[in-house]
Amino acid sequence: xxxxxxxxxxxxxxxxxxxxxxxxxxxxxxxxxxxxxxxxxxxxxxxxxxxxxxxxxxxxxxxxxxxxxxxxxxxxxxxxxxxxxxxxxxxxxxxxxxxxxxxxxxxxxxxxxxxxxxxxxxxxxxxxxxxxxxxxxxxxxxxxxxxxxxxxxxxxxxxxxxxxxxxxxxxxxxxxxxxxxxxxxxxxxxxxxxxxxxxxxxxxxxxxxxxxxxxxxxxxxxxxxxxxxxxxxxxxxxxxxxxxxxxxxxxxxxxxxxxxxxxxxxxxxxxxxxxxxxxxxxxxxxxxxxxxxxxxxxxxxxxxxxxxxxxxxxxxxxxxxxxxxxxxxxxxxxxxxxxxxxxxxxxxxxxxxxxxxxxxxxxxxxxxxxxxxxxxxxxxxxxxxxxxxxxxxxxxxxxxxxxxxxxxxxxxxxxxxxxxxxxxxxxxxxxxxxxxxxxxxxxxxxxxxxxxxxxxxxxxxxxxxxxxxxxxxxxxxxxxxxxxxxxxxxxxxxxxxxxxxxxxxxxxxxxxxxxxxxxxxxxxxxxxxxxxxxxxxxxxxxxxxxxxxxxxxxxxxxxxxxxxxxxxxxxxxxxxxxxxxxxxxxxxxxxxxxxxxxxxxxxxxxxxxxxxxxxxxxxxxxxxxxxxxxxxxxxxxxxxxxxxxxxxxxxxxxxxxxxxxxxxxxxxxxxxxxxxxxxxxxxxxxxxxxxxxxxxxxxxxxxxxxxxxxxxxxxxxxxxxxxxxxxxxxxxxxxxxxxxxxxxxxxxxxxxxxxxxxxxxxxx
Length: 764
Ligand SMILES: *[C@@H]1O[C@H](CO)[C@@H](O)[C@H](O)[C@H]1NC(C)=O
Ligand SMILES: *[C@@H]1O[C@H](CO)[C@@H](O)[C@H](O)[C@H]1NC(C)=O
Ligand SMILES: *[C@@H]1O[C@H](CO)[C@@H](O)[C@H](O)[C@H]1NC(C)=O
Ligand SMILES: *[C@@H]1O[C@H](CO)[C@@H](O)[C@H](O)[C@H]1NC(C)=O
Ligand SMILES: *[C@@H]1O[C@H](CO)[C@@H](O)[C@H](O)[C@H]1NC(C)=O
Ligand SMILES: *[C@@H]1O[C@H](CO)[C@@H](O)[C@H](O)[C@H]1NC(C)=O
Ligand SMILES: CC(=O)N[C@H]1CO[C@H](CO)[C@@H](O)[C@@H]1O
Prior knowledge:
Alpha-Beta Plaits, Rossmann fold, serine protease, seven-stranded mixed β-sheet, binds 2-acetamido-2-deoxy-beta-D-glucopyranose, seven-stranded parallel β-sheet, 16 helices, Peptidases_S8_3
């Protein structure tokens, strides 16, 4: 746990703590929607005038402003002293002033630099067969892009849509020739506050790999013959291969500046993207209010303009209440495994029995078990008293004479040292290989390249320990990595995927949906660390994280939008959520990494179903007014909301506004916290018929957990050519619910053809 705090501290420290350059740190000054009858030039001037009112006499606004927001919303980022920032906070028109935060990319364990993945979008889908989707534009806020990747080749693409207003910025090793009819736009922003010394390029060009991977996952062309050095062979293809891509580089490998994230949203809205995909976020231990969170702010204004925003849920699972990017206008995505595994087994001496493990390596050990086997505990250095640290192979705890020439078994449960660091130390001490014992992370294949390593579960490790204990000279080997497909069960919620409930709004269920995010194969930047015997860097990489899940859903959203161009972001989200599946490839309920049946706190509505989402039957519409009422219930007063956006005439916060009423937001899922306060609660919802038939009759079925009564009224909805939208109520009451317990179930409307399913969660 202390490590996490250290990490947080480092993140905050990286933003600078004042007294740098001209005496301040960067603050974001957020001023809400662009006022009516304004223009970017007028806003620019008004920002300058505003900031000059707090500067010392003679100091020019130009010297302190680092970023201006004047298209999708109004505001700026400036280098200010604490007093200047405080003074701006009280000015007319200012919603919030906050220190520029540093957010992180949502790949797992950034130090485990190479990991894996594979994109599986139903190839027989309606979308793949005849897609009208060529004019959908997906914008990504990320670490940049590698334009030479075959994923972004534009052969076969028609002209850039005429409504596109974006640009291709020139930067280091990047100019307008790098954009084409596929990669139609690229911008970058000042991220000097978070940039490491080795990452000094001012350019849309990706130096981290992450942005290239997410872009190709969202919208990459189908590239046949893709693999990671022969592993996971097949065709790599984005979720919406016919969409166009626009990259907004707001991150370096070290992190993403909040001031740049806002600039990316501001430009993406003005450029004309349809979908924004954001695979990054705040640490779950740093919980900014919506009005202090660049992602919540930017996405609010994007959604108000009809742009769907899809974000990763974070990689801080499996602990509860770790989900981030949980504002109700965002589509929040958790990660699941795919039906593929990278198997590398341990063969034990004696009877040659094999113990299943998984990892990626490219070295060569003999096939026969002839390498001496030792545990970390047995190899403990005599100067170390703590055998627990030695069993975890922590740095400095092992006697290198005892491990030389041997395969070392290390516990890797929850150590402070990363897998890659641990393995590096064993390698340099002369070990021939390593077996890491680790229940949680076995599904996430780590690439160790030249050093033979495999990872086994605790259960599998028991057989190894038993063998060692019963032999005076135990020996083993590690077998080559093979790709196992149709692995069961899959999908499984990934251990790292951040979980609900949302710490900010318990009465709003988050995450919303899950998608593949473990060992995903997609395009990558050329790397200099090649496995032995390889001459060319792989154009693809296997990577894990909710970062990888998010662009899968962005691709699906782009396809839904292409098929239904008039749908709002709320309708698109509803279609994706109500058609999700809860079943795995054994036709059994999906489980989590620990083997328990997944709940909506793990995966929201379930696993995204790309084809079903195109024809949901009914949708839960949600207009901007509903988001304003949400903000009232969340605790903002009308004067604050008025600063954020225009309030339609007649709008006011209801006198009875309360967090409990957040449950009434017309969301495709339902969350009710604290039911035991009153014993029963009724929430309202309304559905709109978007099916092909105007005359449709839907009836409800409820999957009710023991301990709860759930009554839906009415239980039948009849749509006609004049009745498109119908409301219903759901009454939850306690039958027999223990204190501090959580129950979940679902409500499904069906006309015999469509199944419109909404998960619910109720806490006592
Ligand atoms: C972009 O850079 C490439 C390589 O340096 C060069 O060949 C090309 O002419 C440049 N294009 C433009 C439009 O400047
Ligand atoms: C690994 O270490 C953890 C504690 O860090 C312990 O609970 C577990 O039993 C150990 N596993 C084995 C196989 O020794
Ligand atoms: C092989 O040996 C292992 C441990 O040494 C033992 O658990 C297993 O049952 C043996 N298998 C067979 C087929 O004898
Ligand atoms: C609205 O809330 C803000 C704080 O968010 C407070 O400063 C202000 O006084 C409130 N206004 C009214 C009219 O209550
Ligand atoms: C809250 O007040 C509104 C009117 O402003 C009313 O329609 C609604 O029923 C009230 N809700 C509750 C739960 O009392
Ligand atoms: C909800 O159901 C409970 C139990 O049947 C009942 O006591 C309560 O009055 C109902 N609430 C509403 C608003 O209908
Ligand atoms: C020791 C070991 O397992 N080596 C294997 C690592 O993976 C490569 C490629 O899959 C094999 O060729 C090695 O034998």
